[in-house]
Amino acid sequence: MKIKKNSLLIKIIFYNDxxxxxxxxxxxxxxxxxxxxSLENRIVDAGRDKITLLNKGYNSVILQAKxxxxxxxxxxxxxxxxxxxxxxTYNTVAKLIRNQLTKKNLKLYSDSIVCIVSSDGMPLGEAxxxxxxxxxxxxxxxILEKNLSRSEEDMDSIYFGKLGDTVYARIVIPYNSxxxxxxxxxxxxxPINQNVLDNLRKFVGLDKNDKIFLVVDNTYQFGDLGLExxxxxxxxxxxxxxxxxxxxxxxxxxxxxxxxYNIQDYNKKYIANIGIGLVGDEIVRDxxxxxxxxxxxxxxxxxxxxxxxxxxxxxxxxxxNKLIEAVDGISKGNYDLSFNDEEVEEIxxxxxxxxxxxxxVRDKEKILKxxxxxxxxxxxxxxxxxxxxxxxxxxxxxxxxVKSLLSAFTSEMGLGYSRAMYFRYSREIDTLVGEMSSxxxxxxxxxTKKDEKTQGDGFEFQLMNLNKLVHLIKIPFKxxxxxxKSLREKRVIYHNDKGxxxxxxxxxxxxxxxxxxxxxxxxxxxxxxxxxLVDYFGKNRKISEEEAELMTLLxxxxxxxxxxxxxxxxxxxxxxxxxxxxLANRFFGRREVSLKKIISIIERMAEYxxxxxxxxxxxxxARDEIVKIKQENLILKEYSKIDENEMKPIEFDQIIYDxxxxxxxxxxxxxxxxxVFMNCSGRILGDRKKLSRVFYELIKxxxxxxxxxxxxxxxxxxxxxKDKNIDKIRINIIDNGMGMTEExxxxxxDPFVSYTDGTPGLGLAIVDRVIxxxxxxxxxxxxVDEGTDIKITLNIYKEEIL
Length: 802
Fold this sequence. Notes:
Helix 1 (about 10-75) packs across helix 5. The protein folds into 4 domains: about 50-285, Beta-Lactamase (2-Layer Sandwich), CATH 3.30.450.20; about 390-545, GAF domain (Beta-Lactamase); about 570-640; about 650-795, Histidine kinase-like ATPase, C-terminal domain (Heat Shock Protein 90, 2-Layer Sandwich). The radius of gyration is 48 Å and the shape is flat. It is α+β, with helices and mostly antiparallel strands. It is built from 18 helices and 23 strands.
């Protein structure tokens, strides 16, 4: 396309370039000004932060000095019992106080002055280094007297003063010397010197080029600036009434950004400044860099913008030139003209709109399909969970229930997880213990097939050896881990991520290859059974929020069923106990008097002098049988009696010793040795009377197991121990008696079960009830002809800390 000198395209590009240049230059100047202001504000803000930090640091030093003065003054009692009018004594006390302060902080108190004054400001004794007395000055003395004349509530215990060109901080506290005076005060004077500035410089963290200095009455005194002492600092009067103010000052051709803290005296009048000077050379360099960078960027933008705009306008005006050429062709007689559709803006815009609409329809169709698939998946999960709930049987042994859950979780007909691992909560050791696992058979087959193709084991061990690995895992319940948290809070927790990134409670989990996992707690209202971990190992699937909600629903339903099972057992036990109570009260209650009379008559008959000894023996046997009936009646009443436990903090070791002392005579008659090994002591929350009955019953059973052992050294050992990581007490009652078979141990705790003739079989049932009421655990380990080990676990009592 030919472009003429006076072409519309040239004019449009020219005026557009001028507009771009003017706009770019304006923006550049604006950005430079903003950048300069930002750099200025940054150093001012830095100065403000540092001077504020300096003020806080110095105030903390003064407050620490006040605390030190209080502490030291309380430890000095040298005036006690001495002549209070002796100035030497007061000077001695002042020196002692100053020496103690110097020992605490030599740099801070090296130039300090300690003075004891009366209520009218008269010095009674003082101690100082090489400093002149800063109290006897006329103005200083007047301020001190005026301050001391106030009440202790209104008196300023800390204030600043000035004597000549010396600025000091003064701390005043009441002092009781025991002299009998109405009031005496300790006055600590701390001059602001170069040591103070050096310490503040370190505290604030100034650079080596930054300065710190002291100005008194607008005259420079000392510091890091290269100024003569006494030289005027500011040319005009500044805002002394404010706490802080900021100025820019040039010293020796170096620009400093000054931040000053105004020190005011007792009357709130300006006396001095502590200032910080931040070097501004770096700011100047930054300004140059910023200006140069902005100019380069703007220049590049101008060149780029003009080039792009020229090209855009060229393309936009090209159809107009074609139209002009077509008109020119018509003027020359060329009527055979045509335009391509894509060169017409309206058609091109319409086609683009259709393309956009088709793309939008395709995207929405894809989203709807994904949602439909997810809906179908959730419906299938609901059906699977419904089947699980319908087929779930709550057995007496929770292990059977958990096995059915694990199988349903890893079945493709069920929930389709890759793996499920169950960790049982052991109340004895307060720990989650790995117990069993289940693996999806389809996942196992796919992983095995992949490993066969690659001719290696790969990650097959994470499926084939999963059960062995699970049995190696123990997770302390008192530590903070995700499995413990899920069971403790009784809620489902899930993460679509690698398991090694989370604290699951044991480092061995890192080798499991856990991926996209969910934690399923098994519990009821009164007991934690354990926690199930499921994941999508080897599957490209994620756990959705709806899936987690369905698992929560399953967890709640399982908990309700477990609770119903517990309540059903408790109801059966209650009804049985109530029936026994009615039976005991109805039949045995009225026979109590008759039994007493019969026993009394038999005892009298036994005392009568019969010639036939067989008659006496039969009478005594009858008496023993009736006494046994009476004793069984009492045991039956005790078992059927339901009363509340009197829970109190008690010393468990004392209970054991008391029971042993009570039963010791019976054991001695049987030739049985009992030993108590107390490896720990402490308190438990329990019913003393019922726990005593528990230990008495268990020791009595051990005695009966040893009664017929003729050729053995009969022993009963009681071992009390505590694991250092678990707040539980373990009591082992061990005997070397006849022992029990596995069949006998199955229902040993059931009521009316006894393997000894002449006993009602309620003793261990009562023991089991008492231990459960105390939230404890009792277990029996026994072998025939070797003995029995009874293990009881109880919780240690912990006092609440308010």
